[in-house]
Every structure is written in C-alpha cells, then in structure tokens.
Backbone:
C-alpha cells in the first residue's frame, strides 16, 4: 500500500512539483540557454540542492531515528573525495598523455604513471601514486566507492557504537571524534590525499573539456535536482510505513521498542549506513560544482552546521530539512559574500560579514528554545498538523530526562 | 728607514707630563723621567724578544710567547691580549713597546705605557710600527692565554674560560688544563675542570690506555657534551675492497642484494669510488635512442613501437651492435662486478677505542632512554593537567545536569581574553595574573549563569538540543570575540618568575609554567572534591544528580543548584583559559582547540565524577604523549590514532573509566 501511496502524500507532491518547476525555471533562464542567470549562480543553486539532499539524510538519522550524528558531513566529504580522485587522476592523465605526444619517443606506461604522480603529488613532495589511488583511473569503480567508502565506514562505526549501546550525547561526541579523526587523517600530507591542499580542479570534467562551464553547471544542477528528488521520495517512502513507525519509536523510547521485540541496533545501523551513503552521493555531486575539496570542509564544525540547518528548518519532517538547508546556506552565502547591505546605526555600522555568525548563532538559540519545530512549524500554524509528519517528542524525552 | 724627529715642541710634552703627574701624585714630579720610565720587567722580556715579535712569523714566534707566558708576571696576560688585539706598537729607535692613541695632530700619536696606561708623550707616526700578528700567531697567543685565564684569581673568569674551552676544544689545551687542575682550589671549578679534562683526553690524548680509561669513566653520564664527544668516535666510512677486510675495524659488513643495501646502491658506490664504469641509466639510453632516430625508426625499429622499456632496451642493444653507442653493462654483469667486492662500514678509530665507546655509550643510551621516559611522563602529566582543567567544568555540568555545553570552549577563550584585558590595565605581570584568575572566574561564572537562565533551563528535558543551542552560543561568542579583539593572536605574558624551566639533567626538564598549571590543576581537584563532598552546595548538587525529583521533594531548590553548578563549571573554564593563555596564543579559536579533547576526557573518564575526569585526563594525556613517542614527527597522526583508540575504548567501557553505578547511573 505504501509504495503506491508515497507519491500521493501531499508534501511529496508539493516538494517534487516545486523542484520540477524550480529546475525547469533555472535551466531555461541559465546562461547556457541564453538566460540571465550566471554560471556561478547556477552552481551555487546546484550545490544548495546537494546540501538539501545531505540535510534530508541528517533528518532521517536525527529527526526520525533520534541519533544526533555529528559526522554526516564527513561522509559527504568522503563522497566528494572519491569522485574527486577520478576527476583529478583522469584529467592529469590526459594532460600527461598530451604532453608526451610531443616527445620523440612514445611514453612507456611507467613514464606516464611517474608523470601523473609528479603532477598530482608534487605539491606534497611525493611522486609515487599511493595505493589508495589504484582505482582512480576507473570511473565506474570510483562511483562505486562514492557509495561504498562512506557506507562501509558508517557500517563499521555504527556496528561498534550501537552494539555497545552508546546513545544520546555520548554517541554525538563519538561521531564528532570520528569526524575529527578523519579530517586530521586527511590533513596529513603523507596519507596520499594531498594533505591540506585537498583535490582541486574538479570543475573540469575529463573528456568534456570542450563543453563550456555554463553548460556543465546546468548538467550538474539537473543531476543534483534529480538526486534530491529521488532521495526525497526514497526517504518519504521509508518513513511513511512500518519502518518509519519503528524508527520513530526508537527515537521516542528506545527501550520500549526493544522490549517489543524489535532489533533496535539493526534498525539504527541501517538508517545510519543508508544516510551515510546518501550523504556520500550528495558530496559526489557537490564537489565537482565547488571545484575544490580539502580536509577543512570535513572539520567537525561542518557536521554541526548540518544539524543546525535541519533544526532551523524543522526536524522530523523531510521538507523541513530541505527548507532549512536551502534557507540557511543561501542566506549564509548572501551575508558572508558581502552582498548584504550594511546597517548604519549612527554610532556603529554593522558589517554583515562580521556579524552574520553572531546573528546565526543567536537565532539558532532562539529557534531551538522557542520554536523547536523550526521554520516548518509555520505550516502547522497555517494549517492543521499533518498526520504523517513527526510529532514533537516532548513527553517521551521528558520521561527519560527525569 | 729612520724617520725625522717629531715636530711637537718640547714644552708641550713637558706640559702634558706635568698635568699627568699632577693627576697621579705617586709619580715623581720629574717631567722627562715620567716620559721615559725605565722598562718594567715585562717590558724587559718584550725587549729581549723584540726582534722575534717584529718578525711576526709563526715558525719563530714560540720562544717569545713562551717567555711571556712563563714569566709569571701578573701583567703578562694583559700584554698578550694587547698583542693579540693589535694594540702593541714598537718604537723603531730602541725597539721598546708602547700603546698608541691617535691624536688630532696628523703626524703624531700619543704614546702610553704598556703596563700602567700612563701617557708618555707624542711620537711621530712614522717612528712606530704596529705589531700585527697573523691569525696563526693569534691562535698561539690564545692558546697560551688559556692558562692565564684558567689560573685567574677571579673564579668567574676561570669559569668563562672553561666554558669557551668546552665549546671549542683543541689538543694543545690538554696539558694546560691538566696543570691548572693541580692548582685549582675551588671544588666546583675543579670538578668541572676534571670533567673537561676527561672529555679532552677522550678526544686528543695520544695514550690509548688513558683515552679508554676516560671513556669508561663516563658510563652513565647523561651530559649532552659526553654524547657529543663519544658519538663522533663511532663514525664510519664505507669501503669496498677485493681482499678480506682483516686489518680494518669493521663496524658492519654489507651484503649486496639485501633490503638495506641493494645491488644498485652497491654499484653506485663502486662508481663513486671509481671502481666501476658509470652506468648508462634509462634516461641516458633514451637520449641516445632519440639521438639516433632516422626516418622515424631507430636501427630499423619503428619509433612508434618503443612504448615499453623492453622495446627500448632492444633498440639500444641494436644500436650497440651497430656501434652507434657504447654498450651498457647488463644487470647480470653489474651484479657479477659487485660480487667481487667486500663491502663494509669501517670505524675511523682504533678497535680498542670503539669497543670502549660502544660499551659506554650503550650504557648511556639506556639511561638516556629511561630519562626520556621520565621527561615524557612529565610532559604527559602537564598535558593531562591542561586537559583536566579544560574538562572538569564540562564534567560538572554534564555530570550533574546532563547538559553538554558546546560553548565551554568559548568560556575558556573568555577567561584568556579576560586575563589579556587585565594585563592591559595592570602592567605588573605577577599582580595582573593574581587579579586575572579570580576575575576570569567571575566573568565566566556570570556568563555561565546568564546562559543557564536564558537558554539552558528551558531545555533540561531536551538534552540533545542543549548541545545545539549552546553550539549557537559558541559560534556567536566566537564571532563576537573576533569582532572585538580582531583575528590576530593577543599576547598573554607570564610573569618572569614563570619563565625558564626546571632542569633536572640534560634530558629531563620542565618549564615553570607547566609546573604552575599542574599545581593549579591539583588545587582545583582538591577544591572541587571538598566542595562536592564537604559543603552544603556539594550535597545538594549530588542529590540533584542522583534523583532530581526526590531532591526537590526534600526542599532543595533545583533551579538554584543547577544555576550555581553551571556557573561553577563555567567559572573553572575561565580559570583554565587563563592557564592555557599563558602558553598558547590567545585567539578566538583558542577554545575550539580544546573542546573536542575535553569532551573525550569527560566521556572516557566517566560522567559526573571528579575522579573520573582525573582518570580521563591522565589517560588521554599519557596516551597522546605515548603515541607521539612512537612517531615524534607527526602530532596529527598521534591525534588521529588517539581518537581511534578512544572510539574503541568506548566499546569496552561505554560509561567511562569511573562509571556511576546503581540508580544514579540511570538518571
């Protein structure tokens, strides 16, 4: 029944149709189609769609299952690294082969490898291609790794954590520690991912150098929109049926669900791993548009921001996550980009570049304390509460806290 | 070349001498006699060696230096210093020596007595020669001077000369030093002399027995100088000979073809010793092939097929057959050549010496390693006390109220900035620290209470959301600090008495700041134990932690207890901020650097227990230093491994080292 009904749920219909309208509008007004939207704006919007996708994943794991993971942006970054490796390797390989074409002798495979190694790793003082790059030349394998690396990492970590029943704040800190460890690991030059230089030049797609960036940006925008739409429908499908009831039950009272005979750990592990995979896919779409990825992107604070988006948008409902991510990230870009008008108070001028973080932090406090339903809570006020969306969980948590 | 007499009128000389004589009443009031005093004994010696000094040749100068240094005259050292510093001038007419001072008159100098520095009179510039000893002679004079300094009545001169001797030792100082030891009365200097004498003996003595004895006397000595003296004795030189190396003091034989010493390395070594022809490497061979391309092929092989190493080697061989290029030795040939040699590293020193050194330095190294362990433990202890200070406030709020305060790091930062502001107003460092510690506590206590009243008390039933709300506070505070204090680091200077370090020996040392932080951590540990276990507030805090409802029923004001607890935890963060600011840079990101470690300290240690935090901080501090010990160059890797370790640790003790038991744990 639910497979049939998921598409008819009002919020799915609204979100999907808005997404379609938005995508069609952006594509038709883009620079590539002769419109007025600049390439960089299209890229920013495409990246925002990816952030919305990872926010949905965060909402699934936090808003629905109650696991406040402070590590999902790390999975996002891992996805980006996996696709970035192919982009960088394949492009460098082309450059090297082109350069070798002018040489008197045709290059040996070893020479090509050495040249690629020097090109990519010269910046960290190496020339050997590390073992983790062994599949970097193959797009299908790297695409598979986009899914596998975050998935397997989440599976192992989740299995360890849930098995020993680490919950609540402890789990949050543990995921934060994982994120920190991962970013510290990537920061090291000798670990084969170019240290704090990260991977760059990702906006150029190997084999499509002749295609202008304006067109590529549109392709990625559409791909991001499709991924977001699929992710939304998948998540809506998951949370609408029995599975959704069980994970919400875990969120509200884990012990009771366990006593009802459900294997709580397996459910949590499944959601944790699945959302890590979604985050990885979102990252793989995001970073070719951003053009560069480095370990700073995966610092623990990024994952906390992810939670902030979901909380501001309204957790426990999928469209809330989408709204939050789109709203806060676009607003952030606007304010920190220096485009917001300064406010002159006479005795002091508020430069938003300096004060945006303060405003964000404080508004976040206000929303958490006074509007725990987030922006999406407005819809509750406008209409009667939707039955499918998550109910606030005050009573259960109150019982646990006391 | 005899110059003309000076043109200064005699009465001027008289006048000057008179003035001088009036100044120094001891001198007889006889002008001419004052101008030409009889030679003092030291001048006599100089006069006797006048020609040698004038000749200024390194080969012949020794008797002159010896005559001076062995004269036993007190002013000999001064004269030698003057000589070395080119301040000695010789009058041509009679060969006597003076000091000279330039005058306003272009043609004359002012002569001064060597010994007393009295002005004697003007002299024509052409009538004196400056004695300019060359560097060789200056070295000889320096060497001779050492003995004067070593026997100088002033102990600080003796110490200084010993220090310079230890810095820059040479063989000829050894007998001088040995003589000086005999006459040294002060035990401290005598011991130091004896030590340096042994070091010099190790390096320069010609008697092997004496050297060995000196080497063995250093067993267990941790001094850096000892290791610096002994280690060079073990330097080796790599050799390759066809015969058996029986006559050599072999340190290690090298077998070509092993991991440590490949055939390529062996062959390269032979090439560097001119024992084998140069290899024609791949790049050179490729260049040769490129040079022989004719009509798109090399020796009949099309260029397009040369895209593997094998094909290129085949082409090169073809070229060799044609005689176009010189043949490259094949790998087998090179290995055969290598195999005809014995490769080994040989010590430069005599076997008896190296044996003694190896034995002594082995013992020293063992001791050094033990001391390094001790040093590392001190480091770990100080790191642990920093983590303890940073985390204990968090542990209190987390343990008692179940609230994770993400803004804790910003409270640490706030404390550091408070201390910085205090320093702006109170220049005296000691006083400003004394003021800053309680003030930082008050400021962050107030901030904590405000945060609790405004935000946290609304979220007690939603613990995960306090994490996010306080995170909002954290980014707002961080940006505020940036807006107020700018992004660059602000200095927080420790008072002078906290500068420097406590040195146990050449290996073990700890800075006073770290000791102070350690003491501070202990003070707060004891204080908190006292507050929590012996005061009314502590009782109430524990009651609320164990069962909030029951505590309320008993008349405990939960709100008040929570507020005070949160304030206390935040206040301690402020104190920690002052301590951390003393050695780290005060920036708006100061707190961020410690927050994750603090969380881990709390989680590993176990929540709601001062002892748990102590255990957690100790474990993490020692762990981090321990991992750094294995991989000293890479602190990033050390942190990574530590976090991974902690994640695994949590698997086995999910509630930390010191876990609460019973009903309190379920609260």
Residues:
């Amino acid at each position: 029944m639910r497979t049939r009904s998921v598409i008819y749920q009002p919020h799915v219909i609204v979100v999907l149709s808005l997404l379609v309208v938005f995508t069609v509008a952006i594509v038709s007004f883009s620079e590539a189609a002769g419109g007025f939207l600049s390439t960089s704006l299209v890229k920013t919007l495409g990246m925002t769609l990816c952030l919305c996708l990872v926010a949905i994943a965060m909402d699934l794991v936090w808003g629905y299952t109650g696991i406040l993971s402070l590590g999902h942006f790390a999975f996002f970054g891992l996805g980006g690294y996996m696709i970035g490796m192919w982009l960088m390797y394949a492009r460098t390989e082309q450059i090297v082969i082109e350069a070798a074409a002018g040489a008197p002798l045709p290059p040996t495979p070893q020479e090509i490898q050495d040249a690629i190694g020097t090109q990519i790793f010269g910046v960290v003082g190496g020339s050997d291609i590390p073992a983790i790059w062994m599949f970097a030349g193959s797009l299908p394998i790297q695409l598979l790794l986009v899914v596998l690396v975050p998935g397997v990492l989440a599976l192992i970590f989740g299995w360890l954590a849930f098995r020993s029943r680490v919950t609540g704040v402890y789990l949050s800190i543990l995921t934060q520690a994982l994120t920190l460890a991962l970013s510290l690991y990537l920061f090291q030059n000798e670990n084969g991912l170019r240290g704090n230089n990260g991977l760059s030049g990702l906006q150029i797609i190997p084999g499509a150098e002749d295609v202008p960036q304006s067109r590529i940006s549109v392709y990625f925008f559409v791909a991001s929109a499709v991924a977001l739409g699929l992710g939304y429908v998948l998540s809506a499908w998951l949370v609408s049926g029995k599975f959704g009831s069980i994970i919400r039950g875990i969120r509200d009272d884990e012990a009771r669900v366990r006593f009802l005979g459900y294997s709580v750990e397996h459910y949590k592990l499944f959601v944790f791993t699945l959302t890590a995979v979604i985050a990885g896919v979102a990252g793989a779409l995001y970073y070719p548009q951003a053009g560069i990825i480095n370990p700073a992107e995966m610092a623990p604070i990024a994952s906390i921001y992810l939670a902030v988006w979901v909380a501001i948008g309204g957790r426990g409902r999928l469209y809330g996550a989408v709204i939050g991510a789109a709203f806060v990230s676009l607003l952030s870009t606007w304010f920190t980009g220096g485009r917001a008008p300064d406010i002159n108070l006479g005795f002091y001028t508020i430069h938003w570049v300096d004060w945006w973080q303060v405003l964000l932090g404080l508004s976040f406090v206000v929303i958490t304390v006074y509007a725990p339903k987030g922006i999406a809570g407005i819809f509750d006020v406008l209409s009667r509460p939707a039955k499918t969306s998550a109910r606030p969980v005050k009573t259960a948590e109150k019982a646990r806290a006391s | 070349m005899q110059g003309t007499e000076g043109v200064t009128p005699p009465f001027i000389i008289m006048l000057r001498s008179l003035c001088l004589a009036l100044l120094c009443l001891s001198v007889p009031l006889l002008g001419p006699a004052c101008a030409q005093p009889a030679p003092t004994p030291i001048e006599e010696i100089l006069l006797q060696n006048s020609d040698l000094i004038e000749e200024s040749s390194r080969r012949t100068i020794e008797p002159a230096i010896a005559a001076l240094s062995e004269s036993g005259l007190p002013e000999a050292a001064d004269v030698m210093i003057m000589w070395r510093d080119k301040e000695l001038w010789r009058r041509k007419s009679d060969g006597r020596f003076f000091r000279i001072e330039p005058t306003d008159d272009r043609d004359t100098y002012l002569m001064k007595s060597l010994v007393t520095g009295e002005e004697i009179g003007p002299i024509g510039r052409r009538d004196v020669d400056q004695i300019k000893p060359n560097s060789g002679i200056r070295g000889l004079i320096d060497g001779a001077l050492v003995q004067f300094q070593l026997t100088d009545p002033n102990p600080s001169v003796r110490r200084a000369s010993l220090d310079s001797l230890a810095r820059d030792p040479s063989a000829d100082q050894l007998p001088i030093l040995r003589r000086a030891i005999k006459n040294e009365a002060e035990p401290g200097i005598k011991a130091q002399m004896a030590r340096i004498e042994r070091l010099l003996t190790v390096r320069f003595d010609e008697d092997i027995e004496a050297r060995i004895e000196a080497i063995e006397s250093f067993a267990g000595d941790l001094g850096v100088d000892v290791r610096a003296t002994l280690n060079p004795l073990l330097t080796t030189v790599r050799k390759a000979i066809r015969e058996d190396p029986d006559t050599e003091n072999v340190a290690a034989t090298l077998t070509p073809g092993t991991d440590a010493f490949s055939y390529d390395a062996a062959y390269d070594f032979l090439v560097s010793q001119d024992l084998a022809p140069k290899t024609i490497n791949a790049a050179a061979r490729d260049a040769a092939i490129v040079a022989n391309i004719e009509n798109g092929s090399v020796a009949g092989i099309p260029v397009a097929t040369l895209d593997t190493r094998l094909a290129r080697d085949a082409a090169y061989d073809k070229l060799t057959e044609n005689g176009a290029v010189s043949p490259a030795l094949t790998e087998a040939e090179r290995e055969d050549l290598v195999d005809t040699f014995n490769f080994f590293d040989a010590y430069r020193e005599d076997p008896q010496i190296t044996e003694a050194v190896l034995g002594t330095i082995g013992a020293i190294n063992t001791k050094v390693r033990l001391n390094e362990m001790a040093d590392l433990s001190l480091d770990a202890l100080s790191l642990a006390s920093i983590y303890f200070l940073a985390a204990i406030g968090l542990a209190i709020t987390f343990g008692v109220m179940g609230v994770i305060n993400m803004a804790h790091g910003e409270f640490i930062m706030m404390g550091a900035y408070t201390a910085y502001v205090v320093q702006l107003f109170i220049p005296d460092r000691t006083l400003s620290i004394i003021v800053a510690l309680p003030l930082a506590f008050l400021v962050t206590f107030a901030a904590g209470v405000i945060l609790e009243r405004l935000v946290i008390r609304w979220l007690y039933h939603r613990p995960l959301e306090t994490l996010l709300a306080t995170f909002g506070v954290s980014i707002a505070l961080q940006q505020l600090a940036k807006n107020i204090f700018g992004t660059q680091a602000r200095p927080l200077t420790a008072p002078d008495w906290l500068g420097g370090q406590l040195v146990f020996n050449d290996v073990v040392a700890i800075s006073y700041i770290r000791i102070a932080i350690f003491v501070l951590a202990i003070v707060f540990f004891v204080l908190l134990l006292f507050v929590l276990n012996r005061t009314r507030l502590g009782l109430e805090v524990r009651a609320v932690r164990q069962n909030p409802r029951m505590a309320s029923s008993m008349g405990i004001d939960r709100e008040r207890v929570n507020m005070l607890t949160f304030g206390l935890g935040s206040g301690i963060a402020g104190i920690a901020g002052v301590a951390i600011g003393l050695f780290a840079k005060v920036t708006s990101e100061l707190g961020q650097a410690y927050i994750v470690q603090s969380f881990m300290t709390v989680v590993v240690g176990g929540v709601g227990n001062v002892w748990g935090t102590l255990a957690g901080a100790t474990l993490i501090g020692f762990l981090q230093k321990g991992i750094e010990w294995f991989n000293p160059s890479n602190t990033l890797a050390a942190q990574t491994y530590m976090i991974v370790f902690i994640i695994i640790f949590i698997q086995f003790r999910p509630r930390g080292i010191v876990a609460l038991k019973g009903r309190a744990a379920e609260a």
Observations:
- The CA atoms of residues 69 and 172 of chain A lie 5 Å apart.
